[in-house]
Inverse folding.
């Protein structure tokens, strides 16, 4: 049983055209910036938005194939966890979880028993009688998850399931969500703009930009070999395109980078910001891949400081460097300040375009 | 109900203000052929009259204005008891024409009233008289739809009197709040018969048919008219009452189905 | 909670407070007039006439039945106006308010023209089923519902427009069809709007006079509701009219205040 979706939706200026497959037991993350069409895709698959063209089918079971076939959401074996959960405030947690079962014809008693069991799996059986609005964000997220899972759907759809949580609970809830997804035997499609959620929770990533799939693959693969600036930024790598000839790559945006290992033809060049070092003066011995650079921005990250630079004309137009706070103090870093940036050739990764 | 009272109060206030302004306007010269021969009639005459006088008094008002250029007649047509209350609450009436002596009696500040017309009941039936009503005895037939005026209103009280005289008990389906409502039910064919005044049948000619009955003479309804002692326009009031009692006035009233004493 | 509300009142601008109090006074002054005019000494004896209780019982029964009728017909109509993709929605919405604009007596005549014995629909009802609405208690309910329904439709439509339709989507993804979603999700979420509409509707029906007396006539115990009794009492005995009005007022205030409390608290 494989979910096949060829989604074609046109809405005014925006048009979405993406093909997806999800295997049983697989968790696929649809990752992309806001407005890329991720949520539209999720709405199409769940039946909240009819396709303009294309086809959505779970094996032989066609859900949407305009103009002939359209199954309304209530007739699709799905479970959806919405971004802000959409728990029914007039029902308590138990009734929220039992709602899907009741809607699918399970009698009241059995539905409640089943819902209690589900609440138990997320440790919330003591909140059965509570109204959703009295729950914390993490608790509400878990109730929303078991409400979606309670009907044993073939396809679980999660729309930014962690976006509404504060940073301190996200970590814990994400780990717990991962465990539930591991146990879930059906197909899972996760929509998110957070690369960390996608990397941690998904078996496969589908990156969407401007309504199109730009890259698809296992998280490690994508983290190592980003193909667009957006993906590179997501995974925190410097990424350039250029033409390699021997140990030198001429970047398409100008400047050159020297490689440790030779390559040829059009390539992607990727390296982590930690591979870049900064010096107030040109380092002695003048190693390769050292360019005069200007600071354009400084961001504080958890334990490092990310410095945004421009190294034209000799090097890349934009360059990210991660340095320690101590180094920031030593260098008296400030925007506009001229420096020298040096890149370790051994940390450069090249792969064909 | 309160809404009605409040509205009436508001209307009264507005009328009072207007009447006050009217007093200040310079008098127009009054023609010499005026029947009351008043020296200088001017301003507005506020006439509070029973609803059943609507058509005939509107006509009389026009005639009166034509005879007295410079005088304006304004009417407040409503149920006699409502009018009596409005007058007692200080509404700026010059003349009160009631459909019953009882309501005239309720008004305290008035000059002595005169009966100017009488009205008698008639059976009203829809055109063609589909239920074959012939007389008061049909009103006791439960299979017929009957609307009567409520006993609280004058036409209802008169109806009670005629039924007492006829010796039967009517079986009404509805006790209407006024004679016009009873007439509406007949003209729409909702009821087979009702008891209304001759003048109402006359006014609704074509929409209802009238059937006279002998017991009607037991309940002759007298319409008294009087000027009010607190009339803002006493001269105008007197002139208007005189005009109603004149032959010209009587002619209009008789044409409407009233009898003159 | 009380501390918060006190500080809120403290900050109320005078420019709002003054007209607000004037408005309240304007609404209550007629009531004061009634209280002042009430014949207190003879009040008990006037109250214990069976006519009063008949009229009161009939008023409560008819207003409640009319409200029920308005809810059965009006909530779906509000839903249609708020959610369904129908052409000419604006025109339909304007037409819904017709009974508000129409003088009630005219409304009553209009009802007679349609549902009366000789009416467009009424003549068939009479001929085929022997049903005749005028001069019956059912006729009172119909007349009151006609006049009161816009209040319910307008407030329920407002509530529906304000409600988040994504909850209905969530219900659909859980397997609920349109009807189940409406019953179990939409309706509970707009309950405050429905309650507010029903209260307005009931109050309007309770005070209904013109359409009722025109369409259903006036017969004690069958169609004489309190407003009709008040009107007729005014013809002969204004004191009784005042007493009846007060009874109607007190009963409606008590019913509305207690029901509202229960409904609203039931929602929490």
């Amino acid at each position: 049983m494989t979910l096949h979706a060829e989604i074609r939706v046109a809405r005014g200026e925006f048009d979405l055209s993406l093909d997806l497959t999800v295997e049983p037991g697989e968790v696929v993350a649809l990752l992309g910036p806001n407005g890329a069409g991720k949520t539209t895709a999720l709405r199409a698959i769940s039946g909240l938005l009819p396709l303009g063209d294309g086809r959505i089918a779970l094996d032989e079971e066609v859900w949407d194939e305009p103009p002939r076939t359209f199954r309304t959401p209530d007739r699709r074996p799905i479970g959806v966890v919405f971004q802000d959960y959409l728990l029914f405030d007039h029902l308590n947690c138990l009734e929220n979880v039992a709602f899907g079962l009741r809607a699918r014809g399970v009698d009241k008693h059995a539905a409640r028993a089943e819902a209690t069991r589900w609440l138990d799996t997320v440790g919330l059986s003591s909140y059965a009688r509570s109204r959703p609005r009295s729950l914390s964000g993490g608790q509400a997220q878990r109730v929303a998850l078991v409400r979606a899972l309670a009907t044993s759907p073939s396809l679980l759809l999660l729309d930014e399931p962690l976006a509404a949580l504060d940073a301190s609970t996200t970590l814990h809830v994400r780990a717990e969500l991962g465990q539930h997804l591991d146990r879930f035997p059906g197909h899972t499609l996760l929509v998110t703009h957070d690369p960390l959620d996608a990397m941690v929770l998904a078996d496969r990533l589908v990156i969407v930009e401007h309504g199109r799939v730009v890259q698809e693959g296992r998280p490690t693969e994508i983290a190592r070999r980003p193909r667009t600036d957006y993906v590179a930024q997501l995974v925190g790598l410097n990424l350039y395109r250029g033409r390699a000839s021997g140990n030198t790559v001429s970047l398409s945006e100008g400047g050159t980078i020297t490689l440790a290992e030779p390559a040829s033809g059009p390539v992607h060049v990727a390296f982590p910001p930690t591979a870049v070092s900064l010096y107030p003066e040109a380092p002695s011995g003048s190693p390769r891949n050292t360019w005069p650079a200007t600071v354009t921005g400084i961001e504080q990250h958890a334990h490092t400081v990310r410095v945004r630079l421009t190294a034209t004309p000799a090097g890349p137009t934009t360059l990210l460097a991660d340095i320690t706070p101590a180094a920031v103090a030593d260098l008296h870093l400030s925007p506009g300040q001229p420096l020298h940036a040096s890149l370790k050739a051994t940390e450069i990764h090249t792969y064909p375009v | 109900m309160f809404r009605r009272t409040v509205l009436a109060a508001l209307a009264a206030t507005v009328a009072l203000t207007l009447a006050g302004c009217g007093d200040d306007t310079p008098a127009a010269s009054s023609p010499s052929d005026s029947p009351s021969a008043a020296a200088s009639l001017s301003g507005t005459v506020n006439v509070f009259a029973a609803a059943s006088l609507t058509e005939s008094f509107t006509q009389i008002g026009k005639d009166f204005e034509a005879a007295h250029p410079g005088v304006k007649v304004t009417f407040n047509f409503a149920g006699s008891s409502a009018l009596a209350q409005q007058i007692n609450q200080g509404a700026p009436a010059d003349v009160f024409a009631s459909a019953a002596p009882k309501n005239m009696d309720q008004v305290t500040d008035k000059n002595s009233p005169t009966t100017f017309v009488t009205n008698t009941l008639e059976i009203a039936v829809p055109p063609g008289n589909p239920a074959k009503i012939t007389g008061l005895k049909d009103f006791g037939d439960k299979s017929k739809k009957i609307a009567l005026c409520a006993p609280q209103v004058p036409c209802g009280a008169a109806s009670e009197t005629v039924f007492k005289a006829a010796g039967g008990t009517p079986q009404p389906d509805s006790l209407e709040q006024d004679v016009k409502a009873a007439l509406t039910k007949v003209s729409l064919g909702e009821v087979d018969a009702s008891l209304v005044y001759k003048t109402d049948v006359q006014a609704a000619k074509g929409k209802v048919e009238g059937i006279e009955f002998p017991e009607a003479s037991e309940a002759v309804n007298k319409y008294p008219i009087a000027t009010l002692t607190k009339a803002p326009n006493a001269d105008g009031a007197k002139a208007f009452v005189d005009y109603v009692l004149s032959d010209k006035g009587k002619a209009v009233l008789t044409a409407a189905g009233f009898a003159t004493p | 909670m009380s501390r918060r509300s006190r500080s809120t009142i403290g900050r109320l601008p005078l420019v709002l407070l003054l007209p607000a109090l004037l408005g309240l006074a304007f609404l209550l002054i007629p009531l004061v007039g009634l209280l002042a005019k009430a014949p207190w000494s003879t009040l008990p004896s006037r109250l214990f006439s069976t006519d009063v209780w008949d009229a009161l019982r009939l008023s409560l029964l008819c207003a409640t039945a009319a409200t029920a009728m308005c809810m059965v017909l009006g909530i779906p109509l509000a839903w249609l106006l708020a959610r369904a993709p129908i052409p000419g929605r604006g025109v339909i919405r304007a037409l819904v308010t017709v009974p508000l604009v129409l003088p009630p007596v005219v409304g009553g005549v209009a009802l007679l023209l349609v549902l009366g014995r000789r009416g467009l629909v009424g003549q068939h009802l009479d001929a085929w089923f022997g049903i005749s609405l005028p001069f019956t208690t059912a006729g009172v309910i119909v007349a009151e519902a006609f006049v009161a329904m816009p209040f319910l439709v307008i407030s329920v439509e407002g509530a529906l427009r304000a409600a988040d339709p994504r909850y209905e989507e969530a219900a659909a993804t859980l397997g609920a069809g349109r009807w189940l979603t409406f019953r179990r999700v939409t309706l509970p979420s707009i309950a405050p709007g429905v309650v507010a509409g029903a209260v307005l509707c009931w109050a309007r029906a309770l005070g209904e006079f013109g359409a009722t007396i025109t369409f259903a006539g006036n017969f004690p115990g069958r169609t004489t509701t309190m407003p009709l009794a008040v009107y007729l009492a005014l013809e002969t005995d204004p004191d009784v009219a005042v007493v009846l009005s007060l009874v109607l007022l007190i009963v409606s205030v008590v019913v509305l205040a207690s029901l509202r409390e229960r409904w609203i608290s039931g929602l929490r």
